[in-house]
């Protein structure tokens, strides 16, 4: 179980790529006051987490509906 959690966390880091996105965030928020930067970072982190969570729950169903993959529910 711990190995699966670690593997999932590493995969998430590879997909999200925080070190690669930090310079983009810094460039896009240049000139923003610190308070606005924090609010922007929180809002976008929450939005990204919500999107990942929704696709984690419904991704298989969406792939099946679009004909990309066969989705089998475990019983």
What layout of secondary structure does this protein have?
Blueprint lengths: L1 H15 L1 H11 L5 H32 L10
Strand content: under 5%
> What is the terminal-to-terminal distance?
19 Å
Rounded to the nearest angstrom, the radius of gyration is 17 Å
Largest sheet data: none
Helix content: over 70%
Element-level helix/strand string = HHH
Secondary-structure-derived class:
mainly alpha
Q: How confident is the prediction overall: mean pLDDT?
A: 87
Low-confidence stretches are: none
Count of strand segments: 0
**Integer count of domains:** 2
Description:
- The chain has 75 residues and is mainly alpha-helical.
- It has 2 domains: 1-30, no CATH class; 33-75, no CATH class.
- It has 3 helices and no strands.
């Amino acid at each position: 179980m711990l190995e699966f959690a670690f593997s999932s966390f590493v995969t998430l880091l590879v997909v999200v790529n925080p070190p690669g996105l930090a310079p983009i965030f810094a460039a896009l928020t240049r000139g923003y006051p610190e308070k606005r930067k924090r609010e922007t970072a929180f809002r976008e982190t929450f939005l990204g987490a919500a999107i990942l969570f929704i696709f984690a729950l419904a991704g298989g169903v969406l792939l099946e509906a679009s004909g990309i993959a066969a989705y089998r529910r475990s019983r």
